[in-house]
Every structure is written in C-alpha cells, then in structure tokens.
Amino acid sequence: MEIGPVILGQLQGMQRALRDDQELRVEYYTGTELVHVLEIFVPTPQVFVLSGTDSTREHAVRVIVPAANAAFTTRVMRVEVGRTPLRVNILTPRPKE
After folding, report:
1. Cα 91 from chain centroid?
2. 50 and 39 in contact (C-beta within 8 Å)?
3. pLDDT single digits (tens) 45-67
4. Residue 18, CA distances (Å) to 58, 68, 87, 89 in order
C-alpha cells in the first residue's frame, strides 16, 4: 500500500471536520527549517512538493519530499473574526485519458 494517499486522506478529513472559525495549520520540519504548508502538489503518490512559508512567514519555501518521509504536525487554530480561514490546497494531476 502506498502511504502518500493515506496521508493526504487524513489531512483532507481533518480539514473537512473544521468549523467555519477554524483552520488546520500544517507544519513540516526539514531538519533546519519549520515550513508552514499552504499547498501540497502530488506529482506521483510517492512524491510531495510542499509550498508554504518559513517560520517568520516572510519567505516562500518549497520542499520536495518522498511521501514516505513526510511527517506533518497539525493544529486546529481559531481564526480572528472577519478573517477567512486558510485551507491547505492539495493538488493532484488530472487523470490521463
């Protein structure tokens, strides 16, 4: 069984369970940098391309990681009144016809 789809399914399930005033903060630690993940591109079930910001939220970061090595920390966070909650965008390739 491939682990990539299982991880993505868990993240999607956590996001679906959120209330309108909550967001799921997804973090990935590279070993030297904490990445606040905003998007996961899945070119294959074995590879994730993570896009987001560094811990200061000032610099864009992109990390290419084998899905089997992707360990995320997630937190449900309440958002301020009037602010739209962020959702992690998961992009998968369209099936070829």
Report:
1. 10
2. yes
3. 899 999 999 988 889 999 999 99
4. 26, 26, 10, 15
